[in-house]
Amino acid sequence: MNKKKESKVVPNVRFKGFTDDWKQRKFDDVGSVAMCKRIFKEQTSDEGEVPFYKIGTFGREPDAFISRELFNEYKTKYPYPNKGDILISASGSIGRTVEFTGRDEYFQDSNIVWLKHGNEIDNSFLKVLYSVIEWSCEGSTIKRLYNDNFLKTEFMLPKIDEQIKIGNYFSNLDNLITLHQQKLTLLTKLKKAMLEKMFPKKGSVIPEIRFNGFANAWEQRKVLDLLIQPITDGPHETPKLVEEGVPFISVDAIVDNKIDFNRKRGNISEEYDELCCKKYKPQFHDVYLVKSGSTVGKVAIVETTDRFNIWSPLAAMRCGEKSYPYFLYNLLQTKDLQAQVADKSSNGTQPNLSMRELEKFPVSVPSNLEEQKKIGDYFRNLDHLITLHQRKIDKLKNLKKAMLDQIFI
Known about the structure:
The protein is of the alpha+beta class. The protein is 34% helix and 18% strand.
């Protein structure tokens, strides 16, 4: 791509070889709105042969089903999209699009529409164009994009060969995002399944899956037995936050079982941090569990040596040489342990788990520290792969957003 000066008729960034001005158009210059025949509630059922979508969630779970007979009749008599047409939600989640795959499914009129057009506009470009338009909608409770609003919407249109180039570029980006999302989903499901297979079920001392070389039964212990000191927390009073200082985190920062310092409460002064450290000073590989609030049970492990401190809703656990921190970190994520958290949390305005109660939770633990390390490192590697794919997804989405701003006028 090569950059070009910003103007009203050319974008900031263009693919090489394209120099023609873009033209201002309206959708009624290039086509007309099409929609399927209206379907009434009594024509649908909870089960059936053909999926039916009535709102902007099409492409996900169908809202209902219609009979094959009705589908064949309406598909023949009334407008129906062709494979590759871009369906757009005109009600609810305005502007959401799906490329029609050609499979048998039906859509509610006016809620889901598409543009019937000739060869002047490319569908892959149209799909991206829809995503950058600021639609003019009507309605107080439910927003609706009426046909006239749709057709009178103005936009800038390049020649067809440049449209195809742009459409293919964003299609490839979307495919990459989807690929990493699929891998992320598979890895997340794998981790969830392996957590239940590599840790014994409640009352058992033998896991379903083990690494080679380990055969001894696990030992029944308590959480406190895995720690070199009692569980502790941060200050219970509300700290005074300052503009610059030591990062201060609470439950808000525990996201997807990781610490997100972008979600810190704020900063505390170095003097206040020193006061907090008399009770608890965070160390590398400390393990946290949310013990108070709506996210009680969420877990994280410290993977930074940077200075920070925590508030009281976080329970801090330190393994030292008594156990492997990544073993404990993943043990706390298992269904059995999370069930104990839910069972022992008090039910007030917000759930609250006593640190002393948490220390007494019964757990099964390998007597051999090497087996703990094997298990902990297995899940640690899985987490790294999950994080890698999530970062790639975020990077690709940011790239897409930036290029949409630069390529479209």
